[in-house]
Amino acid sequence: MKTRVLNYSIVLIIGALLNTTQSLAQYREKNYGETPTEIVPWVNFQEAYKKHFLTPQPFRGVGREKPEPVGLKSVKIGLLAPLENSKDKPKGIQMLQGTQLAFEQANANGGFRGIPFELIKRNDVGLWGAAANEMVYFDDQGVWAVLGSLDDIVSHVAIRVGLKLEIPMVNMADPDPTYTETNIPWVMRVISDDRQSSYALANQIYKIDGHKKVSMIRVNSRYGRVGTGEFKDASTRMGYPVAVEQRYAVGDTDFTEQIKMVKSSNPDALVLWGDGNEMANILNQLRKAGMNQPVYTSDRAVNKEFLQIAGNNANGVISTCQYNPKGDNPIYKKFREDYIKRFNMEPDVFAVHAYDAANITLDAIRQAGLNRVKIRDLLLDLKTYQNYQGASGTIVFDATWTDVGQIYMAEIKNNDFIFSPYKYVGNPLRSSIK
Hints:
- The protein is built from twelve helices and 14 strands.
- By secondary structure, the chain is α/β, with parallel strands linked by helices.
- Strands 2-1-3-4-5 form a five-stranded parallel beta sheet, sandwiched between helices. Strands 7-6-8-9 form a four-stranded parallel beta sheet.
- The longest helix has 27 residues.
- The chain is globular and about 70 Å long.
């Protein structure tokens, strides 16, 4: 009898290992980050000796044996977002409200075994090192997970402290491509990064619209520097390196010098990268300077502020977006209806993804129980929440636990956004080098 049980256990273990191998095989078959073949570094010359970010980093630490606490009055989850004294406060408020809506709905449905979920919110001030103190504060408060944040520097610092404190973190706003390349097995992101947006823009500009000479004006911040990095690399590898790159400081309103420089390059098209209000002002000044070339922008142009400031100049602008607010998604429609009723405003991209991030986190806690390692295990197993159907659409995770789901192109016509799914012109899977 003991031998039979032992043999059965061995079969189960082997089966589990095979299932794990098969489930991870899909990530090894694709280029990292859904990179189109012609954009993969050195693809025309040789295979890389070692391929990075194709196998999830395991967590082999202890902690799963810890018993659940008793007598809790609430189940605390942290939120780190720009809520005060920041130019990004409007984005932070959307993040907060999307999260709050998910919490209120979860508590109306019984919370965690009758115990309410409690949101512990802290301000993302955008200063190097400040996030470390906030993560320690969250740990002192006994949170079971942390949501956020937006600022690249804050997010990078937070996840490193979260690793030390062993706190699961779910990001819904930071588009920095390097965020999950830290390979920290306590972190997941439910919004597509700027790598995905860059590939979509490059595809639109060079493959579909046929431009060959592009110049760029971008914000001189980490968001601008890291965000445009993949676009510039993609442009070069596709045979059309960016002709001129001009930068401006956050808060600038006069872009005369930058426009003078890009105009001298005589480009076929222009790429703008920054916040919506900045890009709208640049667009207006470009048109005033007689530059009528097609304009492409980063996804932060997809908001009402950009349309209001740019006016008729906005027509024809093409951007990207991480979801389709006009699509036939019943989850989004219900979310939008509830959000407007609750907060008396339209949700934006940050609210939508905050709502999804909060719901995934709350669900993981319900399933795993009050044990951080078990919550981490469930969030990052690449099975439980793979192809998650949320308000933002279908969330697809790669081996770094970042969302590589559908990107949408957003073109402005008649002062309104028209959305269409991004589809690469060519084969996105890497073929063997002959």
